[in-house]
Amino acid sequence: MSNVRNIHFEAVGSYLRPAELKEARAKFADGKISATDLRAVEDRLITEVISQQKAHRLPYITDGEFRRSYWHLDFMWGFNGVEHIELEHGYQFHG
């Protein structure tokens, strides 16, 4: 009998957001930079995270989900009839 097990998994592909991206999003929210400026920062940082993954020879490549705020809310806000509400206290997760 073999002790080797096949482990199957799926990767979400989300990477921690760099400080520069967080700062750019805050500036965009405050009206200090344009959507075009934010997109340029996202594009550059996505290119960097892709280069890092290639350097490590990962079998699949992701954009790090750097354009998303919340993996599930961004998806749900795309549905008709789902209202996008920003809460002052943020979203509280338990579990």
TrEMBL record:
Taxonomically, what lineage is the organism? unclassified sequences, metagenomes, organismal metagenomes
Native organism is human gut metagenome
**Coiled-coil annotated spans:** none
What is the name of the protein in this document? Methionine synthase II (Cobalamin-independent)
Q: Which residues cross the membrane?
A: none
